[in-house]
TrEMBL record:
This is Very-long-chain (3R)-3-hydroxyacyl-CoA dehydratase. The chain crosses the membrane at residues 7-29, 41-64, 126-143, 180-200. Belongs to the very long-chain fatty acids dehydratase HACD family. The gene is Hacd4. It is an enzyme of class 4 (lyase). It is found in: Endoplasmic reticulum membrane; Membrane. One of its GO terms (biological process) is sphingolipid biosynthetic process. GO terms for molecular function: very-long-chain (3R)-3-hydroxyacyl-CoA dehydratase activity.
């Protein structure tokens, strides 16, 4: 009971954070139109970073056994967001004003509002079939779109990493070793799209497990 209550509170905190971001983005767009897209990061970036840092706890939940989700897919999804948000977007002010940041945040928060709503109700043993269907179906088309947005954000950031030398390291003599960070990001793009194939396969497996005929009958009963 204590662990279930803790997970409910965690999901509630995440739901409140992502709902605030999602609502804020919609209201700002309806009020200011396209002008709101350029300063999306400056208006909601702090709350977005807090929510993503908090999501690292989900890896711990799986490791200690209070969450039965698969570790590797969840680890990949969380680390993708952490790397793109903190390493790519947060470190380059020029990238923060790009429209792709707004698109990426919109996709992330749309998925998370649905997911944490489903999780909260599931902690209480409540399963609504439309919400269950939405939770396990919406991620299948939206996750690949978010990966494309992440890849585009990385590509947009490359010229700035090259110009400013951010995170590039050149060791002093007698070492003749250096790390050119744009190359690291280009290699990470390959990892990102390879991981996408694995995660999509996992999403289909989860959808079949929760929306299969037998599962639906059990939840209805």
């Amino acid at each position: 009971f204590t662990m279930n209550m803790y997970l409910f509170v965690y999901d509630l905190m995440q739901f409140c954070g992502h709902s605030w971001i999602f609502t804020n983005m919609i209201i700002r767009f309806m009020t200011f139109g396209k002008d709101s897209l350029a300063d999306t990061f400056h208006s909601i970036g702090l709350v977005m970073r807090l929510c993503q840092l908090l999501s690292v706890l989900e890896i711990l939940h799986i490791l200690i056994g209070i969450d039965k989700s698969r570790l590797l897919p969840r680890f990949l999804q969380i680390t993708e967001r952490i790397i793109v948000l903190f390493v790519v977007i947060n470190s380059q002010e020029e990238v923060q004003g790009k429209y792709v940041v707004c698109i990426l945040f919109f996709l992330w928060n749309l998925l998370d509002v649905v997911r944490y709503t489903y999780n909260m109700l599931a902690r209480m043993g409540i399963y609504y079939l439309p919400l269950t269907w939405l939770n396990f179906s919406l991620c299948i088309p939206l996750y690949p779109l978010s990966v494309l947005a992440k890849g585009f954000a990385i590509c947009v950031s490359l010229p700035y990493f090259e110009s400013f030398g951010t995170y590039s390291i050149k060791l002093p003599f007698p070492f003749t070793f250096s790390i050119y960070f744009p190359y690291v990001l280009k290699m990470y793009l390959l990892v990102l799209f390879a991981g996408m194939c694995f995660i999509i396969q996992n999403l289909f497996s989860e959808r079949m497990a929760h929306l299969g005929t037998g599962s639906i009958k059990n939840k209805r009963s």
